[in-house]
Amino acid sequence: MSTHIIIRATSLHKSFGAVQALHDVSLSIKRGEVVALIGDNGAGKSTISKILSGVLRPDSGSLQINGDEVNLRHYSVHKARSLGIETVYQDHCLGEKQPLWRNIFVGRHIRNGLGFIDVAKEKKMTLHLLQQSLGLRGVGVSADALVSTLSGGERQGLAIGRAMLFNSNLTILDEPTTALAVKEVGRVLKFVRSIPENGKSALFISHNLHHVHEVADRFLFVDRGTIVHQSLQEKTSVAELFERLEEYSANSAIRGDK
Ligand SMILES: Nc1ncnc2c1ncn2[C@@H]1O[C@H](COP(=O)(O)OP(=O)(O)OP(=O)(O)O)[C@@H](O)[C@H]1O
What we know:
By secondary structure, the protein is an alpha/beta fold. It has a domain at 5-92 and 170-255: Rossmann fold, CATH 3.40.50.300. It is built from 8 helices and 10 strands. The strands form 2 sheets. The chain has a 6-stranded mixed β-sheet with strand order 6-7-8-3-9-10, sandwiched between helices. Strands 2-1-4-5 form a 4-stranded antiparallel β-sheet, covered by helices on one side. A hairpin with a 2-residue loop joins strand 4 (60-65) and strand 5. Helix 4 (119-133) packs across helix 5 and helix 5 (152-165) runs parallel beside helix 6 (182-197). The radius of gyration is 19 Å and the shape is globular. The N and C termini lie far apart (41 Å). Adenosine-5'-triphosphate (ATP) binds next to strand 2 and helix 1. Adenosine-5'-triphosphate binds at residues 16, 19, 21, 39, 41-47. InterPro entries: AAA+_ATPase, ABC_carbohydrate_import_ATPase, ABC_transporter-like_ATP-bd, P-loop_NTPase.
């Protein structure tokens, strides 16, 4: 594996009013690596992912992408995308009543020489994505189909495929398997596993430790806004993930955090 660091966050702090959501969080993700954030409810996982994806600005700390310092004052979802950081949300990632091709290219349309959207090209690329990323084949597959005709797993797959299409270096997935039928979960996990095969990286957040163990190369444990432990997949069993998470939950219960 290359040691090229895709993203490095250093000493992130973030508070929401009196709630200190993150305290001195530092992490880095290498090229070709899937890193998972594990932690109890309210530990700070989503806050970390939102800072990396440009949704939230930290109160202090710094971010480097591909070795370059990011100006956090001007960092946004749009800027993150331009730097190869894409986020796949649990839901609302695609517009229900829109045809698939529009969803794929929203905000990033391909334009012809006259400045018009190149619909034919976008549809062709969408069809390719449906076939390649989702493995959908046959006469029923169409770039004009509405998002509402796709299953939850297919939607997640398409959203991941979209990130790949735009050559995302880091795909952030916050609870991508929640609310999916069992048979679809396997499909989404397979999509996530294919990310490092293409030399790309992912940040994976899930409460399901079996899923986490299946896809991630490295686990970062978050507790009360701090990264308290990390371990490599090859040296950690699923049982150990459960034990450690239970330990943090028990500690916060003793402290009366919940
Ligand atoms: N917009 C917000 N306004 C106020 N407090 C917030 C906001 N977002 C998060 N918090 C608080 O920050 C802390 C960390 O929340 P965060 O959503 O990052 O946790 P999480 O680990 O993703 O939790 P979960 O697994 O339940 O989604 C929590 O105490 C939460 O209540």
